[in-house]
Amino acid sequence: MFAIMGVTGQVGGAVARTLLAAGQPVRAVLRDAGKAAAWAAQGCDIALADVTDAAALAAAFAGADGVFVMLPPLFDPAPGFPEARAMITALRTALAAAHPAKVVCLSTIGAQATQPNLLSQLGVMEREFSTLPMPAAFLRAAWFLENAAWDVAPARETGVIPSFLQPLDRKLPMVATADIGRVAAELLQQTWSGRRIVELEGPRRISPDDIAGVLAGLLGKPVRMAVVPRDAWAGLFAAQGMHNPTPRMQMLDGFNAGWISFAGGAAESRQGTVDAETVLRGLVARAAPS
After folding, report:
1. Which of 190, 270, 6, 37 is closest to 16 using CA atoms?
2. Which domain range does residue 198 map to?
């Protein structure tokens, strides 16, 4: 039995579906009981647990051959990441108590970076989970291609997409959530000892200009990226309701300057198979006007 967190999201759902397709038993770990029926109908065992409830998490992980864990997205954290730290503590306590055979943890490109930024919370998670007694794999995924969902509306409405990633022609590691789910499911079915770092990106690197070009083809109209000046970021994020935009800005700086990158070295390097056009085609279809 594999216990999977985040099944109602893109990555966790992809992990669960991949395992189910392989005939593996899955325990879907959810916070919302109202979303459990769809997974029960697919044959999943159901466990209800909030990510801050160590006792409920331990019960959800008990007896598992492997556990997939991830932190919920937290884009506007309080200084020092107290929210993430509370979740990490609960998860580590639960894993230590349940002692599953192995754990696969969704991490991120740049988790090893020493400069403070939004992704630092995942570096904290890696350090905390590295002391667990069971084998652990940290799946460091590249920038999600699905982040381009925010680009579809401006591309369709104005043909101009504001870009915080710059320069616009700089190609970055990006990956589809379907590939993340597939690789996580593969890792859960493997046997190893100690700690692994697996770095995952898509079949080719993508620039903001590349995304604009694909969207232009899919929408049948000219589309281009436009740089959002660095000195405008804080005001824009504040206008969106963010209380602490500094970590997000530091993260973007890290991608743009290149210090958020894959570590290489002893890390295992993987490439996915889902290309940007496939992901963007799906995003455009889902955002189509009714």
Report:
1. 6
2. 2-286
